[in-house]
């Protein structure tokens, strides 16, 4: 099984996609669902909560394969909206899981995100005491996500959920306490792709193109054409799917082991964990900082932004592909000419476009060890190090051995920016969700060691230029490495970086399989 | 050669702790008596940290560690002979620059009270009454090892601290001078050199054990 010269080979591993929740395998935004609403439930009486759950299960969207194409044949089998569900540790307790099963959950999950704030850099203005009201209580038991094609479908599904909740007044309620636009307090968190000219984009509110390069794992049901750049990097430069167990419990992971999981196996198999974070974006602070720094920077404002993220803001092209304003112009011209030929019906242009777009994801930093193209501390080079941590040739069995166990399956959408003008004080940001078999090994490690620290990159105490927990000190910096050859450009230092992104809430959730959900609802979980 | 790596010395000494109970220990415990190892542990756990540590006060310490070895533990099967220690041991590891004798002499001379307080619970320490005795005592407890602290080179501590100081100050200089003209840079660098005094190893610099500094 491999990917050779763009030819998709068949995957050997098949998963029971009807048993896995849909959000594990699909980023819904890519499937034409640019709108989302997240709400949080609190359970009261176990029996009634289970009855509610039994009915809700029928609405849950599984990971069954949909065609990406929107052609009429396929349209029928794709729903208008999706629904997914996860539980906090206290939620599982409230649903009456046996003590022995509860004890099998890892400490990160049982503690929850608030208790892990020091590890995550959720300090200062991002500390839990500043989070939305809903997180000030300890009774968030479940997360429900509705994704839809449009706002009407969101409202329809949310009302249906509300009806179901109303039928179980002793069992469950939808919690309020989420800060919404214009100082409202809402019982839900709306999220939406940023629209431009009436069309959804992959942009977030700072203007970056986001959500490129999610990992590809064995059996995920996605087309093998998406594998290059997303799987695990092999010694010969090819890519293989990451082991299923990195993202789904009950399957072998990259250590050739089953990830630790609670008993009985049916409770955990085909389930996984999800991190939910409401990340507020201080757009005034960000724009002001960039505008000010751009005056001294040898290059365009877009290049400066790209040197922070690792990708060009307008179209997400990686710096490995175009590292200067001139190279970007050439790339844009090339893309424009291909697009023109595509519009004229030139079939070969389609292939060229696909090949060029492939390079948005399929790249390494092998030819850029010094960071003169993509800075060593840039956001994408920290959060997905690819093969760059193998600093000595063949030090590991695979170039990406250190990152293959620390990949984040990112979900979520931007929020805000619709009902009020963007500003530091307005409500806008990203609902960040990350799925994986171990919150501690994957999300928390990346957050602590790669986002908020730089020992692995030999950059001392530097932090991620975009999401690092900076405080505006002189040494809160990002280094844009210079280029010793080709025009000998000196390095450029971004100093006194303020906190662009603040945490406003969130928690850790268990995303059970459909089988496990049924057993939880029926009170059949029995680890003995 | 064992115990040394370049100019770095790796000391490992195992000092047997007196078995049984003390008679004149902390009055709170006098009635019941207190074992010597518990006394030592209490003293070790109360030792001041960082700049106040006796090792910050002992020239050229890279990394030092005092701990109590209670016994040896085996994790293998049940069907073979198990060894047990005849006493508990105070383990003293230190990695430092230079020769053993002057190092131990400095430890004694600069921290005599603390050294006596810690080691008084060790077998035969009553025979130690001066720096020479202490050197002889530690040498008699010394093991030959090749255990070295990986986070240091073998240069004198003062030189390493000065190098770190200059590196940090230079980072600050770079961050604050970005974009300046050549003339301004030259002027600022002149001032920087005056400020950091490259040829004065002692000052300005970080102090041994110093963990935080206002830049």
Explained architecture:
The complex is a heterodimer of chains A (528) and B (215). Chain A has 528 residues and is α+β, with helices and mostly antiparallel strands. Helices cover 26% and strands 16% of the residues of chain A. Chain A has 16 helices and 18 strands. In chain A, strand 8 and strand 9 form a beta hairpin. The radius of gyration of chain A is 23 Å and the shape is globular. Chain A starts with 21 loop residues before the first helix and ends in a 7-residue tail after the last helix. Chain B has 215 residues and is of the alpha+beta class. Helices cover 36% and strands 16% of the residues of chain B. In chain B, the strands form 2 sheets. In chain B, strands 1, 2, 5, 6 and 7 form a 5-stranded antiparallel beta sheet that branches. In chain B, helix 4 packs antiparallel against helix 5. The longest helix of chain B has 21 residues. The interface between A and B is small, with 7 and 8 residues.
How would you summarize what this structure contains?
The complex is a heterodimer of chains A (about 525) and B (about 220). By secondary structure, chain A is an alpha+beta fold.
Considering the chains and any ligands shown, give keywords for the structure:
heterodimer; A: 528 residues; alpha+beta; 16 helices; 18 strands; B: 215 residues; 2 domains; 5-stranded antiparallel sheet
Protein topology:
The complex is a heterodimer of chains A (528) and B (215).
Chain A: H1 22-25, E1 35-43, H2 46-57, H3 72-75, E2 81-87, H4 89-94, H5 99-103, H6 107-111, H7 117-120, E3 142-148, H8 151-166, E4 172-174, E5 178-179, E6 185-186, E7 189-192, E8 195-196, E9 199-200, E10 232-233, E11 239-240, H9 265-268, E12 272-281, H10 283-294, H11 301-309, H12 325-343, H13 347-358, H14 379-383, E13 409-411, E14 414-416, E15 428-436, H15 440-451, E16 478-480, E17 492-494, E18 501-511, H16 514-521
Antiparallel strand pairs in A: 1-3, 1-4, 1-7, 2-3, 5-6, 8-9, 10-11, 12-15, 12-18, 13-15, 14-15, 16-17
Helix pairs in contact in A: 2-16, 12-13
Chain B: E1 4-5, E2 8-16, E3 21-22, E4 34-35, H1 36-45, E5 61-69, E6 89-97, H2 100-119, H3 131-141, E7 142-143, H4 157-177, H5 182-196
Antiparallel strand pairs in B: 1-2, 2-6, 2-7, 3-4, 5-6
Helix pairs in contact in B: 2-3, 4-5
């Amino acid at each position: 099984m491999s990917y050779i010269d763009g030819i998709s080979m068949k995957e050997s591993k098949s998963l029971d996609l009807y048993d896995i929740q849909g959000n594990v395998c699909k980023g819904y935004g890519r499937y034409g669902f640019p709108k989302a609403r997240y709400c949080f439930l609190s359970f009261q009486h176990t029996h009634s909560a289970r009855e509610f759950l039994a009915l809700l299960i029928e609405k849950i969207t599984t990971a069954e394969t949909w065609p990406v194409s929107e052609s009429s044949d396929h349209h029928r089998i794709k729903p208008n909206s999706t629904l997914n569900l996860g539980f906090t540790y206290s939620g599982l307790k409230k649903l009456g899981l046996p003590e022995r099963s509860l004890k099998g959950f890892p400490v990160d999950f049982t503690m929850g995100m608030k208790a892990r704030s020091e590890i995550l850099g959720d300090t200062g203005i991002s500390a839990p005491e500043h989070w939305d009201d809903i997180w000030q209580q300890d009774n968030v038991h479940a997360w429900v996500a509705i994704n839809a094609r449009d706002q009407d479908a969101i409202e329809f599904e949310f009302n249906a959920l509300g009806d179901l909740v109303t039928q179980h007044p002793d069992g469950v309620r939808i919690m309020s306490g989420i800060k919404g636009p214009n100082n409202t307090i809402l019982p839900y968190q709306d999220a939406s792709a940023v629209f431009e000219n009436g069309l959804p984009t992959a942009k977030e509110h700072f203007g970056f193109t986001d959500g490129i390069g999610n990992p590809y794992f064995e059996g995920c049901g996605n087309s093998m054409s998406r594998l290059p750049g997303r799987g695990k990097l092999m010694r010969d430069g090819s890519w293989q799917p990451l082991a299923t167990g990195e993202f789904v419990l009950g399957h072998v992971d990259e250590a050739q082991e089953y990830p630790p999981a609670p008993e009985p196996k049916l409770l955990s198999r085909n389930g996984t964990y999800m991190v939910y974070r409401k990340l507020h974006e201080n757009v005034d602070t960000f724009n002001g900082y960039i505008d000010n720094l751009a005056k001294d920077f040898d290059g365009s404002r877009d290049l400066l932004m790209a040197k922070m993220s690792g990708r060009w803001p307008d179209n997400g092209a990686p710096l490995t592909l175009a590292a200067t304003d001139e190279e970007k112009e050439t790339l844009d011209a090339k893309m424009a000419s291909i697009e023109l030929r595509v519009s004229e019906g030139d079939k070969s242009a389609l292939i060229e476009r696909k090949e060029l777009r492939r390079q948005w994801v399929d790249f390494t930093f092998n030819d850029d060890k010094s960071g003169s193209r993509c800075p060593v501390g840039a956001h994408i080079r920290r959060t997905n190090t690819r093969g760059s941590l193998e600093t000595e040739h063949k030090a590991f069995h695979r170039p990406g051995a250190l990152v293959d166990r620390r990949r984040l399956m990112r979900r979520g959408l931007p929020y805000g920016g619709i009902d009020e003008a963007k500003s530091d004080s307005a409500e806008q940001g990203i609902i960040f969700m990350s799925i994986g078999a171990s919150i501690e090994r994957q999300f928390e490690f990346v957050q602590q060691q790669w986002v908020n620290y730089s020992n692995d990159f030999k950059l001392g105490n530097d932090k991620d230029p975009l999401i690092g927990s900076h405080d505006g000190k002189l040494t809160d910096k990002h280094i844009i490495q210079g280029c010793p050859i080709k025009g000998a450009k000196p390095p450029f230092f971004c100093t006194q970086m303020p906190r662009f992104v603040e945490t406003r809430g969130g928690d850790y959730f268990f995303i059970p399989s459909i089988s496990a959900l049924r057993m939880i609802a029926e009170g059949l979980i029995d680890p003995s | 050669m064992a115990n040394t790596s370049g100019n770095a010395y790796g000391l490992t000494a195992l000092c047997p702790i007196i078995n049984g109970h003390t008679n004149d220990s902390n009055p709170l415990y006098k009635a019941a008596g207190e074992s010597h190892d518990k006394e030592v542990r209490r003293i070790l756990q109360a030792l001041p940290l960082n700049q106040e540590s006796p090792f910050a006060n002992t020239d050229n310490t890279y990394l030092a560690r005092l701990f109590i070895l209670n016994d040896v533990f085996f994790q293998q099967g049940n069907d073979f002979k198990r060894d047990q220690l005849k006493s508990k041991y105070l383990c003293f590891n230190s990695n430092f620059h230079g020769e053993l004798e002057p190092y131990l002499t400095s430890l004694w001379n600069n921290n005599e009270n603390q050294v006596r307080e810690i080691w008084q619970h060790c077998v035969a320490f009553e025979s130690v009454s001066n720096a020479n005795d202490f050197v002889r005592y530690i040498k008699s407890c010394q093991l030959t090892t090749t255990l070295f602290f990986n986070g240091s080179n073998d240069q004198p501590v003062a030189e390493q601290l000065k190098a770190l100081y200059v590196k940090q100050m230079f980072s600050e200089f770079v961050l604050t001078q970005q974009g300046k003209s050549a003339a301004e840079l030259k002027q600022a660098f002149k001032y920087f050199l005056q400020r950091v005094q490259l040829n004065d190893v002692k000052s300005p610099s970080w102090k041994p054990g110093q963990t935080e500094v206002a830049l």
